[in-house]
Amino acid sequence: MSRRIKVMFVCTGNSARSQMAEGFARHLGQGRIEAYSAGMEPSRLNPFAVSAMQEKGIDISRQRSKAFDENLARRMDVVVTVCGNA
Questions:
Q1: 48-57 long-range contacts, Cβ below 8 Å, gap at least 24?
Q2: Angle value at C-alpha 9, between 54 and 50, nearest 5 degrees
Q3: Which residue has the higher pLDDT, 1 or 35?
Q4: Could you give the C-alpha distances from 33 to 23, 38, 46, in angstroms and in order?
Q5: Run of H or E residues at 20
């Protein structure tokens, strides 16, 4: 079995875009993607992001806003920024 690809999605607050990207990657990756998200200025998970993902059948309600960790990012295969401030 091939190893899982490690992907980190980064945005400013880690409240919506990067959280949603993490949720989509986990869901669509079907176990082949190890997804993470982080923010440069973490805040809180946006309830509108949770609702939007629920409409797609993806539950991100247990995810939390996390600070960007350079050491963790260096262990990723791919780091994707989802806004201009990250």
A1: 48/16, 49/15, 49/16, 49/17, 49/19, 49/20, 52/20, 53/20, 53/23, 56/24, 57/27
A2: 15
A3: 35
A4: 11, 16, 23
A5: helix 17-29
Residue 11 a catalytic site member: yes
- Block residue for tokens 């946006």: 46
> Of the residues 11, 21, 49, 60, which is catalytic?
11
pLDDT at 3: 86
Task: Write the pLDDT tens digit of every residue in 31-84.
Answer: 999 999 999 999 999 999 999 999 999 999 999 999 999 999 999 999 999 988
Q: Which residues pair with 37 in a beta bridge?
A: 9
Could you read off the pLDDT of 62-71 as tens digits, one per residue?
999 999 999 9
Q: In whole angstroms, what is the distance from residue 61 CA to residue 64 CA?
A: 8
